[in-house]
Each structure stands twice: as C-alpha cells, then as structure tokens.
Amino acid sequence: MLILSPHQLLFSFTLLLGVFVAVSSSSWFLLWMGLELNLMSFIPILSSSSNRYSAESALKYFLIQALGSASFLAAAPISMILHSLTFLIILMALLLKVGAAPLHFWFPSVMQGTQWPQALSLMTIQKIAPISMMSAILPSSNYSVIMIMASISSSLIGGLSGLNQTLTRKILSYSSINHMGWMLSAIMFNESLWIIYFVSYSVVSGSVVFILHSNQIFHINQILVMNFFSKPLKFSLFLALLSLGGLPPLLGFLPKMMVIQEFIISSASLLWLGILLFSALLTLFFYLRMALSSFMLASPKMKMNLTSSQPRQTFILSFVNLSPLLYPLILAIIY
C-alpha cells in the first residue's frame, strides 16, 4: 500500500495545482507560472525516495526543465524582433519538456533513476500541461511540419530503442516516447482525440506500473525468477502488457484505432500512418517478449515459500484492459 508522507502529500497537491493553473490559464504569464509551480513541486517528490540515483535524476530533470522554461521566456523578447520565430521557439521548448524525439535524450535516464510511482507521474501527469499548450498554439502557427517530424521521429526512436533494453523502466520510457508520437499525431486532428488517447494511455500504464511496483520488478530477468504462481496476477500482467502494446481488442488499441480512423477520414499522409503502425508493431514485439517470458518458462522450485498475497486492486486495475469487450453490451443496453 502506498502511503504518502505529509511533505509528499503537500507537493503532490501543488503539483496538480500547477497543472490546473497551466491548463486553465488565459495568459502566457499564468501559463508559465503553472509550469514552474509544477516543476518545483515535482523536484522534491523525485528526490524524496530512498534510491541513491534519485538525486541525480532530480538534478537532470531540473536542468532540462529549466532549459525549456528559459527558452519559453526567451520567446517574449524575440517576438519583438522576429515575430515569426516565436511559436517555433515555444514549440521546441514544449517538445523538450515533454520528452519527444529528437529532444528525448534526458527522458530514459531520468526514468531509470526514479521509483515506480514517480516514473508513472513522469509518464502521465507531467505531460498534461505541455501537450495542452501544444494543442492550443498549433492552430495559430504554421509549424505543423515540425509536429509531423517530431511524431515520426518519436515513434521510430521509441520503437527501435526499446528492442535492446532489459530494464523495465527504460522499456516503459521508450514506450512512452513511442506513444508520444501517436499523441502528437492526435493533436494535429482535434483536441478531444488526444485527450481520449492520453486518458487511455494513463489507465493502461497505471495497470502495468501497479503490478511492477507491487512486485518490485526492475529487470526482465526478475519476471523469469519471480514466484508467479498466482494465475490471476500472471494473467493480469499479460493483459496489461499487451494492452500497452496496442493489441486488439484490449483498451490500448481503441485510441490507436481512433487515430487511424482520423487519418483515413482526413486523407492525411499514408506514409506517416505507416510509420506509426510499424513502430506500434515494434513496441508490441518487446512487450510480447516480457509477457510471454512469464508463461513459457517455468519458475524454479525453491525451498522457502515466496508467495505473497497480492492486493485485489492489482487485478481490478489490470482487468480494466478487457473493458472494450463490454462496449457492445453497454451499447445494446443504452439503445
């Protein structure tokens, strides 16, 4: 059970407050203030864990986010000289803050030095404000080509770089970069599409991280030697990983299907869509490597009993990935 200390509870509240201020702001100054409040609240949360690498990750995260904020502020005086570069600088600063390729170099190393709850926040909550800002400024700018290139590079780098990883946090970090490519493509169409994609990705990522955190799994080999005698736990991990990879008919496939549908309706670039689908197959491959390892290999017999009772919330959260199977029944009841 995750119990927050008083200072962690305070900084978690101010972190969410910073996100709400940034999303609901009506001026650039309030938007910048919300981003800084979110940043200064997340640094103590990162450095409060007992991991010896947490201070290093907190310092890396602070330096990168400070660079993004400085670039964001630099756009104000530059706009008085070269107004056409204002949105370009802001867009590059937001891509750096969100960890999208080719400005992704800091994201896997910061993820590797954090604990699982902080890693989940870094993959989900910390991306809300920059993505909403990109969604707001994109219609008024002429830099959609940059978004397309960032989407393509994020999907390819996230899929290819995750193939040779054995650490679970780095695998999830490159998977997050790959999903960022899909979210950037969803931003290009409409606001509701990326919100649906982000909420679905957060739920599926939470189901995976909750299992990995409850069993303290940080390496693929730990899945092999861990005492996975609990069949519901094994099945829930299997479903959560496949859903995060985007295998139909699980929950992780639905937002990707909606993005594909928007590509077809709007007659967007089929090459762009083909690259996204190719990268999705790559991520599904290294998630299958993780998922099938607990099924295909038998656990070694040990003299001591290592079986631990898993919380019921672990199974409930993981079986959310099967919710699309109930949608036809719900629609039949409604109509």
From TrEMBL:
<comment type="function">
    <text>Core subunit of the mitochondrial membrane respiratory chain NADH dehydrogenase (Complex I) which catalyzes electron transfer from NADH through the respiratory chain, using ubiquinone as an electron acceptor. Essential for the catalytic activity and assembly of complex I.</text>
</comment>
<keyword id="KW-0830">Ubiquinone</keyword>
<feature type="transmembrane region" description="Helical">
    <location>
        <begin position="58"/>
        <end position="79"/>
    </location>
</feature>
<dbReference type="InterPro" id="IPR003917">
    <property type="entry name" value="NADH_UbQ_OxRdtase_chain2"/>
</dbReference>
<keyword id="KW-1133">Transmembrane helix</keyword>
<comment type="similarity">
    <text>Belongs to the complex I subunit 2 family.</text>
</comment>
<feature type="transmembrane region" description="Helical">
    <location>
        <begin position="313"/>
        <end position="334"/>
    </location>
</feature>
<feature type="transmembrane region" description="Helical">
    <location>
        <begin position="85"/>
        <end position="107"/>
    </location>
</feature>
<dbReference type="GO" id="GO:0005743">
    <property type="term" value="C:mitochondrial inner membrane"/>
</dbReference>
<keyword id="KW-0679">Respiratory chain</keyword>
<comment type="function">
    <text>Core subunit of the mitochondrial membrane respiratory chain NADH dehydrogenase (Complex I) that is believed to belong to the minimal assembly required for catalysis. Complex I functions in the transfer of electrons from NADH to the respiratory chain. The immediate electron acceptor for the enzyme is believed to be ubiquinone.</text>
</comment>
<keyword id="KW-0472">Membrane</keyword>
<dbReference type="Pfam" id="PF00361">
    <property type="entry name" value="Proton_antipo_M"/>
</dbReference>
<protein>
    <recommendedName>
        <fullName>NADH-ubiquinone oxidoreductase chain 2</fullName>
        <ecNumber>7.1.1.2</ecNumber>
    </recommendedName>
</protein>
<dbReference type="InterPro" id="IPR050175">
    <property type="entry name" value="Complex_I_Subunit_2"/>
</dbReference>
<feature type="domain" description="NADH:quinone oxidoreductase/Mrp antiporter transmembrane">
    <location>
        <begin position="25"/>
        <end position="76"/>
    </location>
</feature>
<feature type="transmembrane region" description="Helical">
    <location>
        <begin position="194"/>
        <end position="212"/>
    </location>
</feature>
<keyword id="KW-0496">Mitochondrion</keyword>
<keyword id="KW-0812">Transmembrane</keyword>
<keyword id="KW-0520">NAD</keyword>
<dbReference type="InterPro" id="IPR001750">
    <property type="entry name" value="ND/Mrp_TM"/>
</dbReference>
<feature type="domain" description="NADH:quinone oxidoreductase/Mrp antiporter transmembrane">
    <location>
        <begin position="81"/>
        <end position="282"/>
    </location>
</feature>
<feature type="transmembrane region" description="Helical">
    <location>
        <begin position="271"/>
        <end position="292"/>
    </location>
</feature>
<keyword id="KW-1278">Translocase</keyword>
<dbReference type="GO" id="GO:0006120">
    <property type="term" value="P:mitochondrial electron transport, NADH to ubiquinone"/>
</dbReference>
<keyword id="KW-0813">Transport</keyword>
<keyword id="KW-0249">Electron transport</keyword>
<keyword id="KW-0999">Mitochondrion inner membrane</keyword>
<feature type="transmembrane region" description="Helical">
    <location>
        <begin position="233"/>
        <end position="251"/>
    </location>
</feature>
<dbReference type="GO" id="GO:0008137">
    <property type="term" value="F:NADH dehydrogenase (ubiquinone) activity"/>
</dbReference>
